[in-house]
Amino acid sequence: MSDDNGIQLLEFESKLQKIRQQINSKLENQKHIALVLSAVEENISSQSGSASPVAYFVSFLSLLDQSIDADNDTITDANLVATAAYLLDLTLPVIPKALLKTKFAEILVKLAPAITSSDAEAPLIKSAVGSLETLLLAQDINSWNNSALNINPKRGFGGLLEYSLDPRPKVRKRAQDAVHSILANPPPGPSMEHPASAMAADFAIKSLVELINTKPNQKTNKEHSAQLIHSLQLVSSITSANSWPTSKIEHLCDILLEVSKTNDQYLVSSAFKGFEGLFNSMTDEIDSDKFLKVLQVIFDLKPSLNDNHLAVPWIAVVAKGITSYTKVEPLKSVKKIPEVFKILLPFFSAELPEIYISVSQCFISILSEAIPDNFLLLPNNDDVTTEIYEEMDDVITQIAELLTELLNVKYGQATKEIMEVFAMAFTKFRSRSNPDFLEPLAIIGEWRTNEEFEFKEQAEEVIAAAIREVGPETVLGSLPLNLLDSKKAGRAWLLPLLRDNVRFARLGYFVEEFMPLIQEFEKRISSMDSNSVTTKIFQTIVDQVWSLLPHFADLPSDLQQAFTDELAQQLASLLYSNPELRVNICHSLRLLVESNVTFASGALSDDRFLLQQFKIETAQSNVEYLSSKASNILAVLFNVFSQTSPDSRGFVSETIDAYLGISTPQDLESTFNKVSVLLKNALDEESSTPATSQQKGVAKLSVTMMDLVVAMAKYVPESSYNALFSIFTQTVNSSEPLLQKRAYRIISKLTESESGVMALKHFAGDIENVIISSTDSNNLNARAARLQAISSILQIIPENDLFFIPSIMSEIILATKDANEKSRQHAFNVLIEMGKVMAKGGIIHNSKIPGFDANTPDSQASLAEYFTMLSAGLAGGDQHMVSATITAISCIVYEFRETVDTDLLVELASTVNLFLTSNSKEIVRSTIGFVKIASISLPEEIVKPQLRDLLQHLMRWSHEHTGHFKQRVKHIVERLIRRFGFEVIEQNFPEEDKKLLANIRKTKARAKRRQAEEEGESQQRSKKHGNAYDDVLYDSNSDEDDDMDDEGAEQENEDPRRKKKSSQYILESKDSPLDLLNRQSLAHISSTKPSNKSRTVSHAKAFEKNGKLHFSEDAQQDEDPLKTITDGINAYVEAVKSGPVKGQKNKFKFKRGAKAREDDNDDGDDDADELQKPINRGKIGKGSRVSKPKKKFQSRKKF
């Protein structure tokens, strides 16, 4: 027996076992099946004793025969026949195929009445169809081709085809799946096609043709569409099985395209699935000729340019066909793309937007999916031969020529979509777009230079794609900036595009082209008035050019040739002399390192195209080259760091960190020693200098040097660790808070490197002693850094040093009540780290704890011991300490609730709950926090027995309004009700406080009613309009309607069928007539009608690509050079209107309410005043007294 048969038998037995377990099921059908199976098994065991699949098969087939009257074709027992068919469907897959083949006629005769009977219901038919599927799959090629017999497989297959169009969904789906399965598994024979494929195709075509030729009326239209969809689903089942005969492909394509003409999106979708199944089925090279024939048939069915119903689906089918053909024959498909583009090109001239938008998306789809990425690689590669490389060159050239034709006035209405195609072309072909696409790039660049061009944004997307893929050097060769030549059109608008899109470029190009440009502008600026507009424009250009430097430094291809000592010195000089340039220069220096380090580590290893142009070995060599210069660069950066204000050093420290990461150990040691000497000298000098002589707002030199020590901590070599920890020991007790803070940061920084962690483990004992001894000298400002350092130590603490935990326990507990949020958060993290360390176990040497006797015995570390340590704080006399301890216990209980023993949790909960009786509000506030955590997170068996005492103690504070005690207690009661139910809480609730329960119940009921009302209102509001566009359309202001000119009113009254037709307008000046033969003429053609009249327009300009409305201000206002002046005047007028005026006793007061509005309406018309509604102020209150404002709600602190 084969492995497959063994698996099938195991699955069969598993299914029978599930049925046996349903003998007591409440569902009658399941119970009936289990009873029948039990009776069959009893019968088999009484007769033969062995329950083999064949024995089951014979029994189930016999039952099926008994429950049907074959003479009258009627069902005598509906339940029995359904059960027998179901069990037979389970059994047939494990029956030997030889038996099914020889007994085919006998089995089909007994099975047929279950399918053909008019009394058969859906469950019976589904099971019978499954049995018939298994029976037909077992037949060989001779059985299928034997038409002499009256009972043959094709006859049974015909029944499946009939049921594949059944109106019952489950029956139809089961039959279609059976058809697909049979056709996808043809019997072995000389042909790859199934013997029944032609029969299935004829049946599907006949059904479709009959339905298409039938013209439904209004009543039967819905049913007719459903039948069409069912037939198309059958087509998809056949095509996806790769069984549609080649001779019938043309007829099928014709029918599918005819169906696609409808406006019913479901029909169109089903037709597309038919095409998709046809394309997806042809996945082997043997299907290549078949595929070409399908494509040719589709091309022959090309519709007219403006056939909206057929053109759009036809274009979509073409796109799917070409992309699918690529999977079968990649090279042949790529070579066919220019031919396809030539066929599709005229559709860009269609008048209907739906058509030219569809063809643009088709182009984009073909470019992105039908051209394999590896075909764009250089030759001498496993995937790319010289032949493929040359073929791709020819294809790219042909595509560029075809797309360049689109930049013609003939296709002006589709300019936006054409731009999107060009952007995709540059993105796909990358550097191989050069030189074929430079001509269209120059044309698009000239259009963008024209300020009247309508599609500037789309043109910039094309140019941006070109900058990314072919590089700034090539783009600027076709579209020069012309910033210094006043006779040529300047392209300063290119600078932001360069800034956002330059990558992997030549750093030398920036040095050669942009550095001289900067020097020339700076020379001109120096000779001009600093306040003139021209000076500010020139300075803006200089700033924009400098902003390009970081992007040219992002993985440059010529780093070692361009980043010379001369350039490094020039940048260093600028860092000192021009503080405004420090951000850009530091960012550039950092990117030089980070981009090469990242690339060398294989971050972009999946980009094979880039790897061919820039080797990983080159990046590694670049890192070594920068490492040789790191020492000098760090010296400059250290000086700049010391000259920069502390709140603006972030970018400098990031750059320092990058160069420290690539420095050699020798350079690091030397640099660290120099910084250490400077730190020592600064500390000595500051200790002898009075504090009053320090300049206000200027960071001390010692603090700056400590910042550098912290930055270097994780990089210094092992030989410098003694000096590093010496600095830590010396500065951790400093009276200067900033030095203390940085001393603790040394410890935290060391955990970021493996060598640093090893050093911490080596010096752990000394560090722990220093931290314990410096507890009293710790400054409040340095507490957060100290706690973070303690957390770092706990992560690597040795098992012998567990005494460190109780030594600092009280400090950590008190830190949970610190005023600084960071300190509190770090304190909670330290408590959790302590718990994790204690949970691991070990020995606590209590004699080493400060203040303990030397003879104190050791104890075993555990979570229970940890809770004992924490609980010691509850016995303190200071209420602040008790409150902090309860807060700490709350945190630890929540964190370790699943690992702590239940008895310990019960004891802790009962102990802490007693503090609800305290008179200290600080203690009670923390205790209420613990109760909230316990009631939510602890197991019910712990909380439920304590409910009565807990609620009794809680209710004491339910009447206390200060500190939000009442609100917190109410919230806890609500959570308890949610967890245990209202009845349980009511039983344990104090009788005198049950008013609170009643209030909670009323509040919840009121909230439910309000929510129901709000949902009803929102549903009513949602019925008003479907989307924001409808709101703009139907809620337009009357002003807009009034402002419409006569011509606009006439356009409204036009035939609505003509509205889809695109309108193009020529923007022509009086002095220069438009030359339509010039390519630049397209820049003067707009889809918006030019108008001299000012009119109010909606701010809902257009839809974004994600479907959202895009709101923007009027373009004319954006381009108005006097905008800032008018804004200033308006601001002044507004200030005068709403400004203070003198009242009684010459006191200033501000206008409010009606007075302010009256001033606003002074310059309005009288009608507006008459229409203004009076303001209903309402009553203030009793005796016209103003009620006391409500107190602001204060947020609760966690724990």
UniProtKB/TrEMBL annotation:
Residues 1037-1053, 1159-1169 have a biased composition (Acidic residues). Residues 1084-1097 have a biased composition (Polar residues). Residues 1144-1154, 1179-1199 have a biased composition (Basic residues). Residues 352-644 form the RRP12 HEAT domain. Residues 1006-1065, 1084-1120, 1140-1199 are annotated as: Disordered. SUPFAM superfamilies: ARM repeat (SSF48371). It is found in: Nucleus. InterPro entries: ARM-like (IPR011989), ARM-type_fold (IPR016024), HEAT_RRP12 (IPR012978), HEAT_RRP12_N (IPR057860), RRP12 (IPR052087). It holds the Pfam family HEAT_RRP12_N. GO terms for cellular component: nucleus. The keyword Ligase does not apply. Residues 1101-1113 have a biased composition (Basic and acidic residues). Residues 24-243 form the RRP12 N-terminal HEAT domain. Keywords: Nucleus. It comes from the Eukaryota. Belongs to the RRP12 family. This is Pre-rRNA processing protein. It comes from Cyberlindnera jadinii (strain ATCC 18201 / CBS 1600 / BCRC 20928 / JCM 3617 / NBRC 0987 / NRRL Y-1542). The lineage of its organism: Eukaryota, Fungi, Dikarya, Ascomycota, Saccharomycotina.
